Structure to design on (683 residues):
């Protein structure tokens, strides 16, 4: 924001990122020109439905996408490092060191044949180059940090011996093991039960504040975003259609898609009335419509919407929406 | 329509409950576990389902809500307990056969893809039910077309497609159409909207409400999403580790929960208000394993009000038969329990 690109105090700078998956049959336009930044210690929530490109954006930041079939363009910087130009060795140092990631399914993200202690210790030894016994002491500290009860015994447990909530805590411990400056979280609480989800969310929020990590948190759940985000970026069909401080976006969404998403989210609606649902379904990413991708489902769409992709408009500092109906007060957003 | 036994046929009259489940029990043997180890998936569940209502069942994973749904249709045989469908005992002499029950009770599952045959165009999947239940091929095909229209799919456009050619929302519409094709009186919706995106979930919820009014249906709506359950249900049943902890009308459950677990579940919903975030989780820890559940009250290991009496004897649910009953299985609400904070429940029928 506020012209920060040149001063570069930002932890993450992503500019005009596009990701395409190319196969013989078709090209999937998963991410189509995404620009955002994250300051140190800030939590950005990327909110979107399945196929909106939110997870692909996250994976691109760590170069986790299959290189042969993926075409990435644009610019991505984390802590001054140009992600797209890193070689294998530099990538290995980056992953789990400067940047680490937690996933939705800890059971598939953790290795089933090693104890969680072994997996955490390995990460610490690789990145910090310290002895195994020192790493073990650090691993124990981490399990206590994420509030795993009787941590010393749990260190020698295999992933399948832990409950879902404890497994997710173990994965968080592993992600934090090398003091990352940037934490990427891909729906980390979606697979958890309600009473466990809120525990893990509150834990993540506390740790993020104490450790001052910049965080990008991908979710489809407005409620989760309202609990953890500083800012929200709403994605639709591979573009950020709205961005702003979480309280502002939830109180007065600018983009018709965000408005529709909020109206569709069941939350205390009158029981005798229909929900104000968005009609239709998201576009096919192999054949994106010209112009605004949301236009085919938008109640306000005009021929102008279908003619060209709306430029980002900023009605007030720190907020942005890609919709021609939004009055632009400040023109310096992008 | 020329349906097999007219499915709107209301034998017992509107006041007769459509379904009564009494003390249903299902324990699964643990493979490779200690001898005699069982998962107490459903452990003594009783409830009444009235005609035309929607009963919501909530609970966390492993609480037995899906097993319960399968027991109701005898997709799994109950170990113990009794099912009464519109006055007829299920699977008993002089009662109603399982086949006849399934003609009147249908089910929609969570995974919309794996519950459809991938090698069959969806119109054939939908026509299969009416055909098996005695319609001619052409009549079954016509019934499928009619019902596809009713769920909002153009039969000419979508009927010949295969499941992989449909979006998640469209597949779930097909599953709903298939369930309704034989004109059932009751539909069990087991997490039927949980896998859908929010914008599509809203569309399907609207559709379910419209179909219910249109076909005079009774719903059993299983979900882990409390907001959705609040929106769609008339009454709510809360499960924890295989047993019912609370049952009551939806507004009472949400405004005046009796059981500490229900309170915790409600308090775990995100605030939707960044200015008033939840600072402390209502309860800590994960639900214990149903293999060896805690003695007495199963919630006592996570309950803020647990006392020795909670470990000593299991609480009972109380009078659950009525439409207006609001009851909880908790010693706090039984003055005779011996719990130091016990008091009589006000207003429970």
């Amino acid at each position: 924001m506020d012209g920060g690109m040149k001063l570069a105090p930002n932890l993450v700078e992503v500019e005009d990122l596009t990701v395409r998956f190319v196969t013989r049959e078709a090209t999937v336009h998963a991410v189509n020109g995404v620009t955002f930044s994250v300051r140190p210690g800030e939590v950005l929530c990327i909110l979107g439905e399945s196929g909106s490109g939110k997870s692909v954006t996250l994976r691109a930041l760590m170069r986790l996408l299959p290189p042969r079939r993926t075409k990435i363009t644009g610019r991505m910087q984390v802590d001054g490092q140009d992600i797209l130009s890193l070689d294998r060795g530099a990538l290995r140092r980056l992953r789990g060191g400067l940047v680490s990631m937690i996933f939705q399914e800890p059971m598939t993200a953790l290795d089933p044949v090693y104890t969680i202690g072994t997996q955490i210790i390995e990460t610490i030894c690789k990145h910090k180059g310290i002895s195994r016994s020192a790493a073990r002491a650090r691993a124990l500290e981490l399990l206590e940090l994420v509030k795993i009860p009787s941590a010393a015994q749990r260190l020698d447990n295999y992933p399948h011996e832990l409950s879902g909530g404890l497994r997710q805590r173990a994965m968080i411990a592993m992600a934090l093991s090398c003091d990352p400056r940037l934490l990427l979280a891909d729906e980390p609480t979606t697979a958890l039960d309600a009473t466990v989800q809120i525990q893990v969310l509150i834990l993540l929020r506390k740790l993020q504040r104490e450790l001052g990590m910049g965080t990008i948190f991908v979710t489809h759940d407005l409620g989760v975003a309202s609990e953890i985000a500083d800012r929200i970026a709403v994605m639709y069909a591979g573009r950020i259609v709205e961005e702003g401080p979480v309280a502002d976006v939830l109180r007065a969404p600018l983009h018709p898609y965000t408005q529709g998403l909020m109206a569709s989210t069941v939350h205390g609606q009158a029981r005798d009335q229909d929900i104000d649902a968005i009609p239709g379904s998201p576009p096919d990413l192999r054949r994106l419509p010209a112009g605004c991708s949301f236009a085919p489902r938008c109640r306000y769409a005009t021929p102008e919407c279908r003619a060209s992709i709306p430029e980002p408009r900023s009605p007030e500092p720190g907020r942005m929406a890609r919709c021609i109906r939004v009055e632009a007060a400040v023109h310096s957003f992008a | 329509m020329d349906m097999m036994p007219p499915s709107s046929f209301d034998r017992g009259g509107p006041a007769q409950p459509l379904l009564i489940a009494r003390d249903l029990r299902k324990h699964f043997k643990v493979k490779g576990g200690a001898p005699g180890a069982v998962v107490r998936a459903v452990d003594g569940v009783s409830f009444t389902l009235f005609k035309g209502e929607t009963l919501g069942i909530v609970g966390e994973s492993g609480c037995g809500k899906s097993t319960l749904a399968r027991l109701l249709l005898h997709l799994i045989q109950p170990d113990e307990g009794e099912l009464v469908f519109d006055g007829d005992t299920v699977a008993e002499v002089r009662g109603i056969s399982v086949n006849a029950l399934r003609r009147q009770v249908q089910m929609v599952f969570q995974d919309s893809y794996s519950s459809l045959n991938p090698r069959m165009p969806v119109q054939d999947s939908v026509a299969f039910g009416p055909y098996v239940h005695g319609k001619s091929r052409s009549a079954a095909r016509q019934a499928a077309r009619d019902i596809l229209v009713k769920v909002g799919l153009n039969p000419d456009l979508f009927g010949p497609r295969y499941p992989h050619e449909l979006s998640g929302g469209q597949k779930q519409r097909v599953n709903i159409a298939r369930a309704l094709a034989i004109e059932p009186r009751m539909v069990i919706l087991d997490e039927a909207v949980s896998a859908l995106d929010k914008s599509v979930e809203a569309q399907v919820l609207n559709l379910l409400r419209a179909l219910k009014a249109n076909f005079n249906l009774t719903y059993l709506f299983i979900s882990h999403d409390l907001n959705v359950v609040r929106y769609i249900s008339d009454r709510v049943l809360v499960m924890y580790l295989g047993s019912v902890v609370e049952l009551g009308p939806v507004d009472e459950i949400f405004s005046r929960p009796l059981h500490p677990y229900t309170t915790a579940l409600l308090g775990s919903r995100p605030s939707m208000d960044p200015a008033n975030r939840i600072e402390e989780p209502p309860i800590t820890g994960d639900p214990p394993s149903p293999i060896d559940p805690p003695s007495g009250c199963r919630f006592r290991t996570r309950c803020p009000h647990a006392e020795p009496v909670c470990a000593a004897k299991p609480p009972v649910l109380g009078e659950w038969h009525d439409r207006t009953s609001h009851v909880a299985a908790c010693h706090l609400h039984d003055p005779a329990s011996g719990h130091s904070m016990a008091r009589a429940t006000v207003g429970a029928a």
About this structure: DSSP finds 13 helices and eleven strands in chain A. Chain A touches chain B through 46 residues (CB under 8 Å). Chain A has a mean pLDDT of 92. The longest strand of chain A covers residues 27-38.
